[in-house]
Amino acid sequence: DRKLFFISALNRETKPEESAEPTVRPNPTESPGRSLDPCPDVPPNLRGVLHVEFRTNRTLQDVRNHVGPLLQLGGRYRPTSCRAKQKVAVIVPFRNRSQHLNHWLYYLHPVLMRQQLDYGVYVINQDGDGAFNRAKLMNIGFNESLKEYDYDCFVFSDVDLVPLDDRNLYRCSDHPRHLSVAVDKFNFILPYATIFGGVTALSKQQFLKVNGFSNTFWGWGGEDDDLSQRLSYRGMFISRPDSVTGRYKMIKHGRDSHNDPNPNREQKLTETYLNMDTDGINSLSYTVREIRKDLLYTFVTVDVQAPAG
Ligand SMILES: [Mn+2]
């Protein structure tokens, strides 16, 4: 039957596993020392509850002085005494939030170091003033970070969320992990059971299994619930730390310009199952405007091809 054959050929072509695999160019000079023993399951120098405050004005130079000496260009770090269990790309979607980024870097770098991760920080900056697209910036971060290093775990973090306990490990688990479970803004309570926004961690395999995020959520809201539904449709569960370890402080802010609530988000959430195989990492299209290496991060400015108007 010709028609059936055509449909099955089409299905094969759109399978995310085949087209989504980004090119990995491992840099031999950057491969972790094979001679080191693996790091322990529980990092030995964690502090537990952290003091976090956003009242001071922190400059980027303050942060460089504070954590810079231990970092390699591009916000890269790896423990020197043991071989890290995971290679983690921390992806931060961004536009016009420099003060938030300073705070985030000030608190996160020491935490990630104490957690003995082999990690890099990628700030993905949306160019221009078109509608913001958080989810597409996440997909771009996944793609761009993999061009630099053979990362196997991806932490996607909003720039205004700082953990209040360093036992909340920025690593991947057997199931996609939601890290920001108890945010002060929501009175330290999980707002609803399927929530998957804020800070999340997915292995490369988990991310590709759902074809990444949707690229088509413009403006605020919905993209995180869409990813949550993708995970569910692919038979995965959400893993979480307990509500004490998973506490976060959010930097207070008003609504960003060009990030109004997306009026289509409810409708789009009814279509996740229909769209997820064709809208995601396998359909990602963007233009890199600039890649700038700071000691504290890799800053990737991208044109996300926002719709006109
Ligand atoms: Mn926020």
UniProtKB/TrEMBL annotation:
GO terms for molecular function: beta-N-acetylglucosaminylglycopeptide beta-1,4-galactosyltransferase activity; cytoskeletal protein binding; metal ion binding; N-acetyllactosamine synthase activity. It catalyses: N-acetyl-D-glucosamine + UDP-alpha-D-galactose = beta-D-galactosyl-(1->4)-N-acetyl-D-glucosamine + UDP + H(+). CDD domains: b4GalT. Residues 11-42 are annotated as: Disordered. Residues 177-253 form the Galactosyltransferase C-terminal domain. Its EC number is 2.4.1.-. Residues 39-173 form the Galactosyltransferase N-terminal domain. It is found in: Golgi apparatus membrane. Its cofactor is Mn(2+). Belongs to the glycosyltransferase 7 family. Responsible for the synthesis of complex-type N-linked oligosaccharides in many glycoproteins as well as the carbohydrate moieties of glycolipids. PANTHER family: BETA-1,4-GALACTOSYLTRANSFERASE (PTHR19300), BETA-1,4-GALACTOSYLTRANSFERASE 1 (PTHR19300:SF5). This is Beta-1,4-galactosyltransferase.
